[in-house]
Each structure stands twice: as structure tokens, then as C-alpha cells.
Design goal:
The protein has 8 helices and 7 strands, in the order E-H-E-E-H-E-H-E-H-E-H-H-H-E-H. With 246 residues, it is an alpha/beta fold. The chain has one domain: Rossmann fold, CATH 3.40.50.720. Helix 1 packs across helix 7, helix 2 packs parallel to helix 3 and helix 3 packs parallel to helix 4.
């Protein structure tokens, strides 16, 4: 029986992926900054571990507790909407710490066991913002583009030792807490940008042709089981449309 470890599994894509792989008979290690066992079914095939992906000691402890795994899904991430002028350097650093550097850190933590075994899959959850130039997402997109570049080169390195690296690119999902870290949106969109930003923010309320957490879980499943050498897996109808348009 195979084992998958998922970061950021307390809600959204990570939680749905944990549920999905569990229903497929896998062992699931669901990691969360603040563990919540109540969000997952009671099962001897589900283990909930504490993991702050931005903390080196937390990463080491989580991987030691997890033991051997077959798949690592780097799903933990934070979103941001706002103009660059109003985004502080500290906010930008926070985005990169979670969306980029944490992915590198957890990936480095799992590679030794994958190398020794000669198998394993790393799936990094990116975003459909990398597929088009979307306003109000410049720094967020930069953090995800960095992860895309990292994973594309990583895939070539890992292939030499029998290990795979994949990217899943979710579209816009209204049910996730994409902007939970933003706070007061007015602070990130000054009055000078109001006329420009208004229609864009209104578009976020549209519920048609958007991505669901299940779309992402299914894309991760396809990425894990891919035998064609495909690197990128858009998830959700909007992401698929953007990928096809490219």
C-alpha cells in the first residue's frame, strides 16, 4: 500500500486530496500548521502531523514522524491580491517563504529517501496565474513562477535517479482561502488604482467555469500516476482553457 504526504491539508486542495487518495486505498499523511483531525475521517490509514513548512525544525520533525513515503505533495501556500506599489517587501518575502522556499525545503527533505529507493514522486501545486498575465497578482505570480522553474529543472535532475517531479496548476477556486492573508484589501489597492482594479475584483465573484478542490485532487492523482513524462497538469476548466490557449 502506497503512502502520500500532503502539506497544507487542513482545508481546500490539500484536504480534498487527502480525502481522495484515502478513498483510493492509499495511506495518507496529512500535515497542517495547526493539526485538525476532525476534518478527516477516522481511519488507520490517515495520520495527521503538525508541519510549518517555513520552519526547518518542523520540517525535520514531520518527516521523521512520517517515515517512508511514496509521494510528496507540496500544496501549502498563501495567496495575495494587490498592486505592487502597495505591497511591502515583508509581504513579498512572506509569499516567497511559503510558496517557493518552503517547497524547496520540503523537497530537499524527501529526496534522500526517494534516491535510495530509486522511486518516488514530488508534486508541486502551482497556479494558473503562470499561464497568463493577470493584474493584481504580480508578486504572487512571481512566487509561483519561481516554483515552476524550480520544478522543471528539478524534474530533469530527479529523472536520473528514477524519481519524478510534477506540477499541478489550479485555476481560480472561490471556495479556498486564497486571500486569507491579505487583510484590508483597500490597503493593497490605493484609490489611484480603484477604477482599474474594480472590474477585476468583481470578476472574482463569478462562480462560472471555475476550479473546485476535487478538480485539483484529480489532477494530482493523474500527475502521480503519469507514465508519459508530462510535467504540467492544469486543474479545473478555467486552467485547462488557459493552458490550451497557450
Amino acid at each position: 500500500m502506497e503512502t502520500i504526504m500532503i502539506t497544507g491539508a487542513s482545508s481546500g486542495y490539500g484536504l480534498e486530496t487527502a480525502r481522495y487518495f484515502h478513498t483510493q486505498g492509499w495511506n495518507v499523511i496529512a500535515t497542517m500548521r495547526t493539526p485538525r483531525g476532525d476534518v478527516l475521517p477516522a481511519s488507520d490509514r490517515i495520520t495527521v502531523l503538525q508541519l510549518d513548512v517555513t520552519d526547518a525544525d518542523s520540517i525535520a520533525s514531520a518527516f521523521a514522524a512520517a517515515g517512508p513515503i511514496d509521494v510528496l505533495v507540496n500544496n501549502a501556500g498563501i495567496g495575495s491580491i494587490g498592486v505592487v506599489e502597495a505591497t511591502s517587501v515583508d509581504q513579498a518575502r512572506e509569499l516567497f517563504e511559503t510558496n517557493t522556499f518552503a517547497v524547496m525545503a520540503t523537497t530537499k527533505a524527501v529526496i534522500p529517501q526517494f534516491r535510495q529507493r530509486g522511486s518516488g514522486v514530488v508534486v508541486n501545486v502551482s497556479s494558473s496565474v503562470v499561464l497568463a498575465n493577470m493584474p493584481l497578482t504580480a508578486i504572487y505570480k512571481a512566487s509561483k513562477m519561481a516554483t515552476e522553474g524550480f520544478t522543471a529543472s528539478l524534474a530533469l535532475e530527479l529523472a536520473s535517479i528514477g524519481v519524478q517531479a510534477k506540477l499541478v496548476q489550479p485555476g481560480y477556486c472561490p471556495t479556498t482561502q486564497f486571500t486569507a492573508n491579505v487583510g484590508d484589501i483597500s490597503e493593497l489597492i490605493p484609490e489611484a488604482y480603484a477604477d482599474f482594479a474594480g472590474p477585476i475584483l468583481d470578476a472574482f465573484s463569478v462562480q462560472d467555469n471555475v476550479t473546485t478542490p476535487l478538480d485539483v485532487a484529480e489532477a494530482i492523482w493523474r500527475a502521480v500516476h503519469d507514465t508519459t513524462g508530462t510535467l504540467r497538469f492544469p486543474a479545473g476548466p478555467d486552467a485547462v482553457a488557459l493552458a490550451q490557449a497557450r
